[in-house]
Design goal:
Distance between the termini: 15 Å
CATH class of the largest domain: Alpha Beta
Strand order of the largest sheet: 8-10-7-11-9-12-13
Structural class: alpha+beta
Largest sheet: 7 strands, mixed
Shape: globular
CATH superfamily of the largest domain: PurM-like C-terminal domain
CATH topology of the largest domain: Phosphoribosyl-aminoimidazole Synthetase, Chain A, domain 2
Number of domains: 2
Number of strands: 13
CATH architecture of the largest domain: Alpha-Beta Complex
Length: 337
């Protein structure tokens, strides 16, 4: 099989065939829903939110990556991240005490920054791998009346994009292909700026999610990751069982992202996009949300609208509408071939 996420249709079938119901599971495994939601009981006014995510594309700053990508899934539920469990696998060749300590420091510093407790995990030097792998699990809490899901988009909603694309992919290209890009004549200053995209504009969406949820009723939120913005919008449509019309020309693509994607022939809309946040709201709440995000210095664009119809995405351009199909694999994988 090819590297990358499983095909959406295949994954839907597998989840349908092998899922197990439990009345306390409010949100279970479903394409587009990146965190499960569990009701601890009637005595609590909170839901538990649980997610899992690995880091496989890059090893630089892997500890920070691991904390933040898991935290993002918690944030899209309108929840507050609380506890982190992490598995670290180090290859036999190239690992050292210094490397292990550096990764632990990265995880510790990220958890301190976002007020998350490390509560367990597993660490080993593992045979059969040629690079470090991190796999994280995070748990958060959300008040029951404030829960947000990917599948909550309502007919008539506006589809918004906070920040832009492709933040994570830009950093990965600069970090994994830096020497090669320097030889091709790309400026060191450009590559250094792109490397630091994980910190600025930043991979985390917790602030954006909190600002949005505190300002207006948010109907759905989603964190576009593998497959980029394209797959993120398709996943929102599938989870919501709605049709979404989107104008891709309104999507903000960062300058460095355009440059580095062009260097490798990548479509930036299909490159891993952690750091961006998709959400849907009522049109009547747009002005209030825009003002709240402006105060927080968070850029936002209206890129589409939710409509009644089959679960699909239609692109707007000229007089014709075209269905936007999910990508079978993330564009970033092309740089490793």
């Amino acid at each position: 099989m090819r590297t990358g996420k499983l095909d959406m249709d295949l994954l839907e079938r597998l989840l349908r065939e092998h899922g197990r119901s439990d009345p306390r599971v409010i949100v279970g495994p479903k394409v587009g829903e990146d965190a499960a939601v569990i009701d601890p009981g009637e005595s609590s006014d909170l839901y538990w939110v649980v997610t899992a995510d690995p880091i496989t594309f890059t090893t630089e700053e892997i500890g920070y990556y691991g904390v933040v990508v898991n935290m993002n899934d918690i944030a899209t539920r309108g929840a507050v991240p609380k506890w982190f469990v992490v598995t670290l696998l180090f290859p036999e060749k190239g690992s050292s005490l210094r490397l292990v300590e550096r990764v632990f420091h990265q995880i510790h510093d990220a958890c301190q920054r976002f007020h998350i407790a490390i509560i367990g995990g597993h660490t080993e030097v593992a045979p059969g791998i040629d690079k470090m792998i991190l796999s994280g699990n995070m748990i958060g809490e959300v008040k029951k009346e404030r829960l947000v899901t990917t599948g909550g988009a309502e007919t008539g909603d506006l589809l918004l994009l906070i920040k832009g694309v492709c933040i994570e992919g830009t950093s990965i290209i600069a970090r994994e292909k830096g020497p090669e890009l320097l030889k091709k004549g790309y400026a060191p200053s450009l590559l250094q700026k792109a490397r630091n995209y994980i910190f600025h504009p930043g991979l985390e969406i917790l602030q954006a999610a909190r600002v949005a949820c505190d300002a207006v009723p948010v109907h759905s939120m989603h964190d576009p990751t593998e497959g980029g913005l394209i797959n993120g919008i398709v996943e929102t449509a599938r989870a919501s069982r709605k049709e979404i019309e989107v104008d891709l020309e309104r999507v903000h693509i960062y300058k460095e992202s355009r440059i580095l994607c062009e260097a490798y022939g990548l479509n930036p809309l299909g490159v891993i996009a952690s750091g961006a946040l998709l959400l849907t709201i009522s049109p009547s709440d747009l002005s209030v949300l825009q003002k709240a995000l402006e105060r927080a210095s968070l850029p936002v664009q209206v890129i589409g609208r939710v409509k009644r119809g089959p679960p699909r995405v239609l692109t707007l351009g000229g007089k014709r509408r075209k269905e936007l199909k999910p990508l079978s694999r993330d564009e970033i994988l092309k740089i490793f071939e």
